[in-house]
Amino acid sequence: MSLFVDTSVWSLALRRGAPVRDPEVGMLIQALEIGETVLTTGLVLQELLQGFAGPKSSERIVERFAALPLVAPDREDHIDAAALRNRCRRAGVQIGTIDALLAQLCLRHDLIMLTADQDFAAIAKYSTLKVWKG
Questions:
Q1: What is the pLDDT of residue 18?
Q2: How far apart are CA 101 and CA 78, in angstroms?
């Protein structure tokens, strides 16, 4: 199983001293411990770095993410993400540009989205996106 982890789960996992209550965080920890493939993208890294204050926090995040492979979007991913966003919008589901791109990366690379963000469950209704369910 290959997991794509979005900002919502990383934010929960990186909170200092926070107990592991969220099933998504538990799944992330388990996947890392048993050597599952865990991927993310530069956009998620950027969002995390923008959300945590202080250089020490930023350094820790950069250091931890250095071990993870990053999936990079190409031109086709942007085109397909726009089509996915338009399909969802026509169905009455509003999704953000970044979320559409993250979903597209999962679709292209056949990854399971590990997220605490319910927007991805909505995207999955109008695509073949696989979202992890605890």
A1: 58
A2: 7
The closest of 24, 29, 26 to 9, measured between CA atoms, is 24
Alpha-carbon gap, residue 45 to 61, rounded angstroms? 8
- Residue carrying the six token digits 């990366």: 105
Q: What is the DSSP string of 56-123?
A: HHHHHHHHHHTTS-B----HHHHHHHHHHHHHHHHTT----HHHHHHHHHHHHHT-EEE-S-THHHHH
Strands in 37-39's sheet, in edge-to-edge order, are: 37-39, 2-5, 112-114, 130-131
> Do β-strands 2-5 and 130-131 pair in parallel, antiparallel, or remain unpaired?
unpaired
Instruction: Quote the pTM value.
Output: 0.91
With a cut of 60, say whether residue 17 has pLDDT above it: no
> Residue 122: pLDDT band by 50, 70, 90 thresholds?
very high
